[in-house]
User: What shape does this take?
Amino acid sequence: MNAKIIDGKAIAADLRAAVKTETHRLSVAHGLAPGLAVVLVGENPASMTYVGSKSRAVAEVGMRPFDHHLAATTSEAELLGLIQRLNADPAVSGILVQLPLPPQIDAARVIGNVDPEKDVDGFHPLNAGRLASGLPALAPCTPTGCIKLAKTVHPSLAGLDAVVIGRSNIVGKPLAQLLLAENATVTIAHSRTRDLPALCRRADLLFAATGRAEMVRGDWIKPGGTVIDVGINRVSAGGRSRIVGDVNFAEAVKVAGAITPVPGGVGPMTIVCLLVNTLRAACMQAGLPPPAV
Ligand code: NAP
Assistant: This one.
C-alpha cells in the first residue's frame, strides 16, 4: 500500500489563515502592526524568487513588508549600516537577509549584527544557543515547518527514533534540537556517517536535508515510517528540468507510512513559519504573550 502523502501546501494554507486572523486580532486589540524587512543583495534569480514570495506572503496576511534591494556591489559596511537602521526602527519587527550574499560580504558577520529579537530566520548565534539550551528562541523556519508536518502524522514525537541526514546550521542542527525538545531520540547523520542505509532503516521519523537529488532509496526506509524530505534539487533529463527532493519518492512511497512530496511538502511551510516568527517577534517586542499560532 502507498504511503499517505503529507500535503504541505494545504497545511501551510491553514496555518497562513490562522496567522492572518491573529495579525488582525493583534491590530484590533493592541494596535500592533507587525512588519518584516526583507533584504536582498544582488540579482541571484533563485533569491529574487524567494524574496518575492516572502514579501507577497507578508502583505497577504496583513503585515507590513519593507523591501530593500541593494546592488550586487554593495559593501559590507553599507549592508551593516542598513541592518543598524532596521534594528533601530520600531516599525520593523523582523529582519531577513536573503542568503547567499556576494563574496565581499561576510554572511556570519551580517547575521551576528541583526538584533536577536528581530532575527526571524533564527540564524543568530544567540537564538541558536537559546534553542540548544532549551530556552525560548526564534527557531529557523524550515526545521520548524518540518516538525509541524511530522506532528500532523504523530501528534506526539516523544520516544520516536528520529534520524536527520544533514548537519547544516540552517536545517540539520536546529531540526535535531527541535526534535530533542519534542522528546524524540535523535541521531544526526552526515557525509562521514557509516552505513547510512542501516541507520535510516531504524528511523520512525526520517528527515533528509542533504542537497543530493533522490539519494535516499526505498530500501533505506523503515516500513511504515514517516519521511520528511527537505531537499530542493533541480535535475534535467531529456531536455526537461524538474525539482526533486533528497528522497527517491517513487521508491519511498511504496515503503513509508507517510511522506512529504517535493514540491508541495516542506517548501510551503518555510514561508508560513517565517510569518509565525514575525508575529512572535512583534509580540515579544511589544511585551505581549506569544501569539496563539
Ligand atoms: P548543506 O548546507 O549543503 O548541508 C548538507 C548536509 O548534508 C551536510 O551536513 C552534509 O554533510 C550532508 N550530506 C551531503 N552529502 C551527504 C551524503 N552523501 N550522505 C550523508 N550526508 C550528506 O545544505 P542545507 O542548506 O542544509 O540544505 C539541504 C537541502 O535542503 C538542500 O536541497 C536545500 O535546497 C534544501 N532546503 C530546502 C528548504 C526549504 O524551504 N524546503 C530550505 C533550506 C534548504 P557534511 O556536513 O559532512 O558535509
Notes: The pocket of NAP is lined by residues 142, 165-168, 170-172, 189-193, 196, 209-212, 215, 230-233, 246, 266-267, 270 (CB under 6 Å).
